[in-house]
Amino acid sequence: MARWTLPRSRGFWFFVTAITVGAAGCSSTGRNQVPDGTLEPDRFLFERGSEELEEERWLVAREYFRQLTDTYTQSPYRPEAKLGVGDSYLGEGTPEAIVLGVNEFQEFLAFYPTHERADYAQYRLGMAYFTQMRSAQRDQTETRSALREFENFVERYPNSDLMPEVRGKLREVRDRLGTADLEVGVFYYRQRWYPGAIDRLTALLKADPEFSFRDKAYYYLAESLVRTDREAEAVPYFEKLLAEFERSEYLDQARERLAHLKAEIS
């Protein structure tokens, strides 16, 4: 019987090399790497996984953590190892890895809701969505998911040391959503659809009174009111702009417009 052989072409040697490298990579991961006689194998796996995570070797770290969670189900290190798995996915950063990371943190919160690091899991869950937020002109699904998870954090862990970080991220998330609404309102204004601008900007300021770019919202809302013959309603927004902002590109225009309106009204 004839024996089929693969030609020893350049492609063949590339194929062999790829397999060899792949096998070497697998053998360097955490599977079956606990030395014989190790008194605390779960601790060994956790410490090695943590070291690899610190060095940003995501796959290797995950293998150590996985061996711990799969083999030592009663280990006190198991919850922390599960967090490590989630962190390794987020560190990887691909859309597919982030989905898997979200699942790990959700499972942690389901399995260990009272664990001392539940706040960290909730924070990282929010960050998984935060890192995927798109620009204000694009779809804001991930931004709204980040908002939900950070708001859950604030409600559930009011005394967490992570609270300052979360509040900072929460402000960024709300600003991203607010900017999306702001740009729509300004677009309506420039298209001279002033009722649409008024509705959108009024809703924005009501939903988020601390919106970082509310000076622009104040200005375009007030101008929209002026252009619909609602000058008296516009005055408070120009006044808010002048009172709340020491620096803004709209200050001079607002000051001039306000002086003119007050002169007309009186």
Summarize the structure.
The protein has 266 residues and is mainly alpha-helical. The protein has helices at residues 10-27, 41-54, 58-71, 78-92, 95-111, 118-130, 141-156, 163-190, 194-207, 214-226, 231-244, 251-265.
Describe this structure in words.
With 266 residues, this protein is mainly alpha-helical. It is 72% helix and 0% strand. The longest helix is centred in the middle third of the chain and has 28 residues, at 163-190. It contains twelve helices and no strands. It starts with 9 loop residues before the first helix and ends with a helix. The chain has helices at 10-27, 41-54, 58-71, 78-92, 95-111, 118-130, 141-156, 163-190, 194-207, 214-226, 231-244, 251-265.
Question: Percent helix among the residues?
Answer: over 70%
Residue stretches low in confidence (pLDDT < 50, at least 5 long) are 1-30
Q: What percent strand?
A: under 5%
What is the tally of helical segments? 12
Structural class: mainly alpha
| Overall mean confidence score, pLDDT | 88
What's the order of the H and E elements?
HHHHHHHHHHHH
3D shape: elongated
Radius of gyration, CA atoms, in whole angstroms: 28 Å
The count of DSSP E runs of length 2 or more, i.e. the number of strands, is: 0
CA distance, first residue to last residue: 108 Å
Major β-sheet annotation? none
